């Protein structure tokens, strides 16, 4: 509850792709799902900020449907299993996500406040954040739509700014919004900083749900119309709420700032000092990271000689630098990025080019995540492929068979329960099993620790679409694969 007694419903907006943090962040595994500033992911950190049961109601996450199992698993590991995960069929920007959250909150509560937070931001001082939230809640309870504005610590050109107006209450800190300003050039940002009248736009909102819907109806009626229909036609999919696709896709793609906040006379802003960053670039991680004596932030196995002012990250391999400065170097299993630190805002241009050229690294990496765990190709050649497979505790793959390949499984650690035709076989560390072509099989992890194994495939065709699935625990979307004559040959579950 807020100090005014109004229920606060925390909502994490998890639809972004974080292309400026490529190659670590990809569409299939975006930055909010990554551990960039500690052992917990940005999503987990955001969820924990809104976990106080005295202050908050049930957590809601509005997310890309493709990430649903990853999000659910990350929330489960921090004991947040009761969150409502709402699935968007496709991203329609923050106005639609906010409308959906407000409509759903109003179905459960009479007059709630919705706290809209991007799931991919870093807030270092949670106590200061909660203190700012209390100020915002008092103002929101009177009908204002609150933004959280960060007092700028530098003339940044990476953020949008908000010019503050008069105080809402002569005794308080909350101010009216005078105007919004796009990302400025350096000279303008310096003027903003010197004036003391401008705050960074954090993209965090606290709004009375009824007022938010009223103002959206006033300024962006098509958004509300589409979202109301999408909520009414929503269906349950396991533990997820899947919005009606046909209705939701008619919503205009527009931000909440553009749709409402720049037009309403109810916009107000809370000047805040809770050490915030939107992690919108590699240099942002360099700025908040622990810098060594040479101003370097090093992550992973790194050797930096005669190197200064650089962010260097190795994901599983040694990275060595010599005689360089002010660089971003990020090495993953399939990509190496080298960029001048002053140009890292343009990393998304590389991603856009890779998409145009059809390069798979623009979307995903070699490690492919699935509801049950993940797999990665280690080596492939003529008629064979070697993969590493990780199965989460208690999870299992679909019951399936292959037309064109046989498989050999070797358990590295953990315990595997294997179904092979009519048999059930328990495998432990260093034990193996052969699965001949055409056998019906399934892999499960009955243990409490992750199961890791090596899979050796051999056969004439090794594509992922050579699968006939008989059972699947995750209600994933099914696509029928046909041959050139139109005959069904496989069911591919995404």
UniProtKB/TrEMBL annotation:
Gene3D superfamilies: Jelly Rolls, Spore Coat Polysaccharide Biosynthesis Protein SpsA, Chain A. It catalyses: alpha-D-mannose 1-phosphate + GTP + H(+) = GDP-alpha-D-mannose + diphosphate. GO terms for molecular function: GTP binding; isomerase activity; mannose-1-phosphate guanylyltransferase (GTP) activity. Its EC number is 2.7.7.13. It holds the Pfam family NTP_transferase. The keyword Hydrolase does not apply. Residues 10-293 form the Nucleotidyl transferase domain. The keyword Cytoplasm does not apply. It comes from the Bacteria. Keywords: GTP-binding, Isomerase, Nucleotide-binding, Nucleotidyltransferase, Transferase. Residues 365-472 form the Mannose-6-phosphate isomerase type II C-terminal domain. Residues 300-354 form the MannoseP isomerase/GMP-like beta-helix domain. This is mannose-1-phosphate guanylyltransferase. It comes from Faunimonas pinastri. Belongs to the mannose-6-phosphate isomerase type 2 family. It is an enzyme of class 2 (transferase). GO terms for biological process: GDP-mannose biosynthetic process; polysaccharide biosynthetic process.
């Amino acid at each position: 509850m807020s100090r005014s007694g109004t229920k606060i419903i925390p909502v994490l907006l998890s639809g972004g792709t974080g292309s400026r943090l490529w190659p670590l962040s990809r569409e299939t595994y975006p930055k909010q799902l990554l551990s960039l500033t500690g052992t917990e992911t940005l999503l987990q950190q955001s969820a924990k900020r809104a976990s106080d049961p005295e202050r908050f109601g049930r957590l809601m996450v509005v997310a890309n449907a493709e990430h649903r199992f990853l999000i659910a698993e990350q929330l489960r590991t921090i004991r947040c299993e009761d969150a409502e995960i709402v699935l968007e069929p496709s991203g329609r920007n923050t106005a639609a996500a906010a409308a959906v959250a407000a409509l759903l909150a109003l179905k459960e509560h009479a007059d709630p406040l919705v706290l809209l937070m991007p799931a991919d931001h870093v807030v270092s001082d949670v106590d200061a954040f909660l203190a700012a939230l209390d100020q915002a809640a008092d103002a929101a309870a009177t009908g204002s739509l609150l933004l959280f504005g960060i007092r700028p610590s530098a003339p940044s050109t990476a953020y949008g700014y908000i010019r503050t107006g008069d105080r809402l209450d002569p005794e308080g800190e909350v101010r009216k919004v005078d105007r919004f300003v796009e990302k400025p050039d350096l000279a303008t940002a310096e003027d903003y900083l010197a004036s003391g009248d401008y705050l960074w736009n954090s993209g965090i909102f606290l709004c009375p749900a009824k007022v938010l819907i009223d103002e959206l109806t006033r300024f962006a009626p098509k958004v509300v119309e589409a979202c109301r229909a999408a909520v009414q036609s929503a269906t349950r999919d396991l533990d997820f709420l899947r919005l009606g696709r046909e209705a939701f896709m008619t919503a205009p793609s527009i931000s909440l700032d553009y749709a409402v906040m720049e037009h309403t006379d109810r916009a107000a802003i809370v000047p805040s000092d809770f050490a915030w960053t939107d992690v919108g670039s590699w240099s942002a991680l360099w700025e908040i990271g622990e810098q060594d004596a040479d101003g370097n932030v090093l992550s992973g196995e790194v050797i930096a000689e005669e190197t200064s002012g650089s962010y260097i990250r190795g994901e599983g391999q040694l990275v060595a630098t010599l005689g360089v400065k002010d660089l971003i170097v990020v090495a993953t299993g399939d990509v190496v990025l080298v960029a001048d630190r002053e140009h890292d805002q343009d990393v998304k241009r590389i991603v856009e080019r890779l998409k145009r050229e059809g390069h798979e690294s623009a979307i995903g990496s070699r490690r492919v995540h699935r509801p049950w765990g993940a797999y990665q190709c280690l080596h492939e050649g003529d008629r064979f492929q070697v993969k590493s497979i990780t199965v989460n505790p208690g999870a299992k793959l679909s019951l399936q068979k292959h037309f064109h390949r046989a498989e050999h499984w070797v358990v590295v650690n953990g315990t595997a329960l294997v179904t092979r035709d009519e048999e059930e076989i328990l495998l432990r560390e260093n034990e193996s099993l052969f699965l001949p072509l055409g056998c019906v099989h399934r892999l499960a992890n009955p243990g409490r620790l992750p199961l890791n194994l090596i899979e050796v495939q051999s056969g004439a065709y090794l594509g992922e679409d050579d699968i006939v699935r008989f059972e699947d625990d995750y209600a994933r979307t099914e696509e029928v694969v046909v041959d050139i004559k139109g005959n069904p040959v496989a069911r591919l579950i995404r």
